[in-house]
Design brief:
The protein has 159 residues and is of the alpha+beta class. It has one domain: Beta Polymerase, domain 2, CATH 3.30.460.80. It is built from 4 helices and 5 strands; from the N terminus they run ααβαβββαβ. The longest helix has 12 residues. The protein starts with a helix and ends in a 33-residue tail after the last strand.
Length: 159
């Protein structure tokens, strides 16, 4: 099981992470998401703790295409359930029409959590075995935790 220092070295050496912040987890490329989870699982991080998604709307005049068009940022956390338990957290960014590789093939606990992020934020997980909505009816339009979802959208019979 890697220590926090070894986790940082792994991200720098094998995943090209060069920017670090004390305020947020490291950002890796979306194409490396599944591979990082595999490596960590092999090293003792066998407990899938969370995936959390945030919608970032497009910013007019932004220099990079992803920020200009808008994106979804996801944070994923794995834990090593040992005496000296460690938590490994990382972030990825995907475009609004892009998919992120599912982690269900590695962690059964990712199943419903990924479905929740699809349902509420609109994240699509490539290879997910059951990509149905989890909390809202199948005919629900949109994803209510996206920032472009109108707060006053009517939803009978509730409003």
């Amino acid at each position: 099981m890697p220590t926090p220092e070894e986790f940082r070295a792994l991200l720098e050496d094998d995943f090209g992470v060069s920017e670090w912040s004390e305020k947020q987890p490291p950002l890796i490329e979306a194409v490396d998401h599944h591979r990082l989870a595999e490596v960590l699982k092999e090293r003792g991080y066998t407990l899938y703790v969370f995936v959390v998604a945030s919608h970032r709307p497009g910013v007019e005049g932004a220099e990079d295409a992803l920020t200009a068009a808008g994106y979804i940022e996801l944070a994923t956390g794995l834990r090593s359930p040992t005496e000296n338990s460690q938590l490994a957290i990382w972030r990825v960014r995907v475009g609004l029409d892009e998919q992120l590789a599912t982690l269900v093939d590695l962690f059964a606990g990712a199943d419903w959590q990924e479905r929740e992020q699809f349902d509420l934020v609109g994240v699509r997980f490539a290879g997910h075995p059951d990509p149905r909505r989890l909390m809202l009816p199948e005919d629900w339009e949109g994803h209510p935790l996206r920032r472009d979802y109108a707060i006053n959208t009517p939803h009978p019979p509730w409003r």
